[in-house]
Design a protein that fits this description.
By secondary structure, the chain is α/β, with parallel strands linked by helices. It contains ten helices and six strands. Helix 2 runs parallel beside helix 3 and helix 7 crosses helix 9.
Length: 210
């Protein structure tokens, strides 16, 4: 039986190219998604064997989407596609439950192998990534755990993307008052008191990309 895939990337041409590559290898692409929220909904409905997520998706990034997918479809494994080899992105991805981390510059060479490895119960990191991970774990300056809750991270991403309180409330399906409450708490936790500071934190922590 062929491996069933979910493909999520906010660039249509990228999705089309990846779909063509994967279908040539006899994988079955169940659905495509243009952002993290769509990916989570599709995973909950379809329970794919592997969800392939772009890291830098709007609304809900690939790392946070992977956490949601693990809740919505526990049997689905996640492979993250990204331009970033930086250790803090890799470590955040691994902590979120990602099983494969593939650089977009090597997607044609690495993605098929990554899917096969994670389906076999293994992990896969693009060549060059493993060294960064080892160095980070050996370093005494390892990235600290994220102090924010999943909802606070979602609010942070939308605020950093320039969404208003009302827009954020609609996207997340909560009240504007609840959005303001989450925003106040996350600013208190981070000791950041202006939007520009939240944007800088979001970039540093990999919630959005510069």
């Amino acid at each position: 039986m062929s491996v069933r895939l979910l493909l999520a990337d906010d660039h249509t041409l990228v999705r089309q190219g990846l779909r063509a590559l994967l279908e040539r290898e006899q994988f079955e692409v169940l659905a495509e998604a243009a952002d993290g929220f769509e990916a989570v909904q599709a995973a909950e409905k379809l329970n794919p064997d592997v969800a392939i997520l772009d890291l830098g998706m709007p609304g809900l990034n690939g790392i946070d989407a992977s956490r949601e997918i693990r809740r919505a479809s526990p049997r689905s494994r996640v492979v993250l596609l990204t331009m970033h080899p930086d250790e803090h992105y890799v470590l955040a991805a691994l902590r979120s439950g990602v099983r494969g981390y593939v650089l977009k510059t090597r997607a044609a060479a690495d993605l098929v192998q990554a899917i096969r490895e994670v389906c076999a119960g293994h992990m896969y990191l693009s060549p060059g990534i493993a060294h960064a991970v080892v160095e980070a774990f050996l370093s005494k300056n390892d990235t600290p755990e994220d102090p924010l809750t999943r909802r606070e991270r979602q609010v942070l991403q939308l605020v950093a993307e320039g969404k208003t309180t009302k827009e954020t409330a609609v996207i997340l399906g909560i009240s504007a008052k609840t959005v303001e409450s989450h925003r106040t708490r996350l600013m208190q936790k981070l000791d950041i008191h202006e939007t520009a500071g939240l944007v800088r934190y979001a970039i540093r922590s990999g919630v959005i990309q510069a």
